[in-house]
Design goal:
The complex is a heterodimer of chains A (186) and B (445).
Chain A lengths: L7 H6 L4 H22 L3 H5 L2 E10 L20 E5 L1 H12 L11 E14 L4 E14 L3 E16 L2 E11 L3 E2 L9
Parallel strand pairs in A: 1-6
Antiparallel strand pairs in A: 1-2, 3-4, 4-5, 5-6
Chain B lengths: L2 H10 L2 E2 L4 E2 L7 H12 L4 E5 L8 E7 L2 E7 L5 E5 L14 E3 L3 E2 L6 E2 L5 E3 L23 E5 L2 E5 L7 H5 L3 H8 L4 E3 L4 E5 L3 H10 L4 H4 L1 H5 L24 E5 L5 E6 L18 H12 L1 E8 L3 E4 L4 E7 L5 E10 L4 H14 L7 H13 L11 E2 L9 E2 L7 E2 L6 H15 L3 H6 L9
Antiparallel strand pairs in B: 1-2, 2-21, 3-12, 4-5, 4-7, 5-6, 8-9, 9-10, 11-12, 13-20, 14-20, 15-16, 16-17, 17-18, 18-19, 19-20, 22-23
The chains are: A alpha+beta (186), B alpha+beta (445).
C-alpha cells in the first residue's frame, strides 16, 4: 500500500504528497465499487469486502441540549439500529436469498452516494480510519420513498492487497426515522 | 351527552365481536381517530418511561401520551412528575430536548419559567407588564392527572377518574411479570424511533396475540436460524410448521390487555445458552412459579398501545400520529443483575430482533402499512375483516394456577378481545360507566 507519511492534522495543513493523492483516489474508488455492489444487489460480493472480525454498528441518536452532546449517540452495549458481526451480516444476506424476505421481496431499489471522503488517521501499517458522508435513497413498489443521510466512520484494512471494512459506524442525521424499516445496507 | 359521544357509540358498533368481525373503517376514518384520542388516549393509563431512564433529581425525558407532548421529570425528593410540554402562554414546547437534566424549564418564546413540578415560577415583567396580577398558581404546565409506576414502568393518565394503575393492569400483571420478574430489569440508553403509514390498532392487534403470522411473515429470518429473538432456541425450523397448534396459553384481562405465550419445546430449547441463565435462578423460579417457568416467550399488549415482549425484553410504544400514521418508540430492557457479558448479549439479541432493522420487525412494518392501505376504499370497507380463528372454542380455565386463561396458543381471542374492549371505551361516556360495565373473561370466547 501507499505509505501515509504524516498524521491527520498535519496532513490537512501541509501540501499533499503524490502518495496522499493516490491513496485518496484508491479509497474513493473502493467506496464507489462498494456502493455499486449494494445498488446492483450483489450482496454476496459485498460480504467479501467485510473482514471476519467486522464490527458494524448504527447507534441511536437523541436530541440533546447544547452542552449535553456527549449523550447524543448510543454506544455498543446500548440500543442500536444495527449491532452486527460478520456472521450476523451473512445471516442478513442469506435471509434475502430465502425467497420469503417480504420487506425486500419485491426488492427495494437503492442508490448509495458517498462523498466528503477523508482519510483521518493511519491506525497501523495496514489500517486506516476513514470518514465519509452518505446519502442513501430507496424506492420500493410503485411509490414508497425513503432517504437516509449521515456519516460513516470506517476502519479499512488491507488484506492480501485488497481493502476491506473491519469496522463501520453509521451515524444517521435523523433522530426518528421517517421510514418503516431498515431492510437495506449502509 | 355531546354529539361526539353519540357518534362514538355508533363507531363502537363497527366491532361485531360475537361474530368475529371488524369493520375496516375504524382504521382510516379521521372522525373515529379524533374520538379515539378523546375516549381512549385521554382516558387510559399510558406508558411514559422507565424509572431507570431518569435516575437522578432533575432528570427528564420527553415523551408522548397519544398526541400530547409530555415531560416526565424527577424532582429533588425523587418523586416523578408529568405534565404537558406546552407553555400556557402561547403553546410552545418549553423543552425541545429528548432527555437531559434541568433545574427548571424556560420557554424559549417569552421566557415563562417552570420548575420540575411544572409550576410557573418566573414570568418576565411580572410586576411592570402584568401589574403583578397574573395568578401564577393557575398557569403552570397542565398536569397529567395521575402518575404511578409498576416495577419500574411509569404510567400516566389524563383522567382523574381512572381507576388506580394496579386496578387498571389487574390480572394482566401476571403476564407482565414474565418480563419484569426475570431479573433486575432496567432500560438501556437509547430509544429507537421510527414511523410508518399504519393505523395504531394494527400494530396492537399484532402484539396482543398474532401467533399465526410468524411462520409466514418471518419465515426468512427463521429459515436462516434467527428464531424468536430469545437467543435460547436451537435451529427454529419447527416454527415453520404453519397451521399447527403448539403448546401454550393465551390470556385476556379487564380493560383490554392480553397476551399469548408459547411453552418451551424441549427439542428446540438450548439450555446451554448463556441467555438461559435466569431460568436457573431459584429466586426467579420462586417468583414466577411452575406454569410461567414453562413459558418460552410471550407477546403482550397493554391497552391501548404498549407492546411488551418477554422474549427479547423490550417495550414498544406505538404512538398515534393521525389515523394512518404511527411512531414506534422501542425501549430495550436488560437485567442489571446479570454478568456484563450476558447483558451485552441481551442487548444485541434485542437490537437484532426488533426495531426497523430487526430480523423480525423489518417485515412487520410493511404488513401494517398494507393492512392500513387495505382499509381505505369505500367499497373495500363493505367487507369486514375476519377475526374468527378459534371463535367459540376459547374456554376460560380458572384452576388457580393463574388468573383466568385459555389453554391455547394460536387463536384470535386476544385480538378480538382488544377490539371488543376498544368498542367499550368508544361507547362509554365516563370511567364510572366503564368500571360498572366492561367485559370480563368468562365462559367461552
Amino acid at each position: 500500500m501507499h505509505t501515509l507519511d504524516t498524521t491527520a492534522s498535519s496532513r490537512e495543513s501541509q501540501q499533499p504528497t503524490l502518495n496522499d493523492i493516490l491513496l485518496q483516489y484508491e479509497i474513493e474508488q473502493f467506496y464507489y465499487h462498494e456502493a455499486a455492489l449494494l445498488d446492483d444487489r450483489r450482496f454476496h460480493e459485498w460480504l467479501t469486502l467485510l473482514t471476519d472480525d467486522l464490527e458494524y454498528f448504527m447507534p441511536v441518536r437523541s436530541t440533546r441540549a447544547r452542552g449535553d452532546e456527549e449523550h447524543e449517540f448510543t454506544k455498543p452495549g446500548e440500543a442500536a439500529f444495527f449491532d452486527e458481526t460478520k456472521q450476523l451480516m451473512e445471516e442478513r444476506v442469506r435471509k434475502l436469498d430465502t425467497g420469503f424476505s417480504w420487506a425486500e421481496d419485491p426488492p427495494s431499489r437503492t442508490r448509495h452516494f458517498v462523498s466528503n471522503v477523508r482519510i483521518r488517521e493511519k491506525l497501523s501499517d495496514t489500517e486506516l480510519r476513514v470518514t465519509c458522508n452518505f446519502f442513501v435513497y430507496r424506492t420500493r413498489l410503485a411509490q414508497d420513498e425513503d432517504w437516509w443521510v449521515g456519516r460513516r466512520e470506517d476502519t479499512l484494512r488491507k488484506v492480501d492487497g485488497q481493502w476491506k471494512i473491519a469496522k463501520r459506524y453509521i451515524f444517521l442525521d435523523q433522530v426518528s426515522l421517517r421510514s418503516k424499516n431498515l431492510s437495506i445496507f449502509f | 351527552m355531546s354529539m361526539n359521544r353519540a357518534r362514538a357509540r355508533e363507531f363502537a358498533q363497527l366491532v361485531d365481536w360475537e361474530h368475529g368481525l371488524v369493520n375496516r373503517r375504524i382504521f382510516v376514518d379521521e372522525e373515529i381517530y379524533r374520538a379515539e384520542l378523546e375516549q381512549i388516549f385521554a382516558r387510559c393509563w399510558l406508558y411514559l418511561a422507565h424509572e431507570s431512564q431518569i435516575p437522578n433529581p432533575g432528570d427528564f425525558i420527553s415523551v408522548y401520551m397519544g398526541e400530547e407532548p409530555v415531560l416526565v421529570v424527577r424532582d429533588r425528593d425523587g418523586k416523578i412528575n408529568a405534565f404537558i410540554n406546552s407553555c400556557p402562554h402561547r403553546g410552545n414546547r418549553v423543552c425541545r430536548a429528548d432527555q437531559g437534566n434541568v433545574t427548571s424549564f424556560v420557554c424559549p418564546y417569552h421566557g415563562w419559567t417552570f420548575d420540575r413540578q411544572g409550576k410557573l415560577v418566573g414570568v418576565p415583567g411580572f410586576r411592570e407588564l402584568y401589574h403583578g396580577e397574573l395568578n401564577r398558581e393557575q398557569w403552570g404546565l397542565p398536569k397529567v392527572a395521575q402518575v404511578a409506576s409498576y416495577k419500574g414502568l411509569i404510567f400516566g393518565t389524563f383522567d382523574p377518574d381512572a381507576p388506580s394503575l394496579e386496578e387498571y393492569l389487574g390480572d394482566y400483571r401476571w403476564g407482565l411479570d414474565l418480563l419484569l420478574d426475570q431479573g433486575d430489569m432496567v432500560a438501556v440508553p437509547g430509544i429507537i424511533r421510527w414511523t410508518m403509514d399504519a393505523n395504531w390498532k394494527f400494530a396492537a392487534d399484532n402484539a396482543i396475540g398474532d401467533m399465526y403470522h410468524g411462520a409466514v411473515s418471518h419465515r426468512s429470518a427463521i429459515l436462516v436460524g434467527h428464531s424468536g429473538g430469545t437467543g435460547t432456541t436451537r435451529r427454529g425450523r419447527d416454527y415453520l410448521a404453519q397451521g399447527r397448534q403448539r403448546p401454550g396459553i393465551s390470556m385476556v384481562t379487564e380493560y383490554g390487555h392480553g397476551f399469548n405465550a408459547d411453552f418451551i419445546d424441549d427439542g428446540l430449547f438450548n439450555w446451554d445458552s448463556p441467555l438461559a441463565y435466569w431460568r436457573k435462578r431459584p429466586e426467579v423460579q420462586a417468583r414466577l412459579g411452575p406454569l410461567r417457568m414453562k413459558v418460552n416467550r410471550s407477546n403482550q399488549n397493554i391497552f391501548p398501545n404498549l407492546f411488551v415482549n418477554s422474549g427479547s425484553r423490550e417495550l414498544m410504544l406505538r404512538n398515534p400520529k393521525g389515523p394512518t400514521r404511527i411512531e414506534i418508540w422501542k425501549t430495550t430492557l436488560v437485567d442489571r443483575s446479570a454478568p456484563p457479558e450476558i447483558q451485552r448479549m441481551q442487548v444485541r439479541a434485542s437490537n437484532r430482533h426488533f426495531g426497523p432493522g430487526g430480523m423480525f420487525e423489518q417485515e412487520d412494518g410493511e404488513n401494517w402499512e398494507q393492512s392500513t392501505f387495505g382499509a381505505r376504499g369505500v367499497v373495500t370497507q363493505r367487507y369486514n375483516l375476519n377475526y374468527t380463528m378459534g371463535l367459540g372454542h376459547g374456554e376460560i380455565v380458572n384452576d388457580g394456577q393463574s388468573p383466568p386463561r385459555i389453554d391455547s396458543l394460536t387463536n384470535e381471542h386476544c385480538q378480538l378481545w382488544f377490539y371488543r374492549c376498544w368498542a367499550e371505551y368508544m361507547a362509554a361516556s365516563s370511567w364510572q360507566e366503564l368500571k360498572e360495565r366492561h367485559s370480563r373473561p368468562e365462559g367461552r370466547l
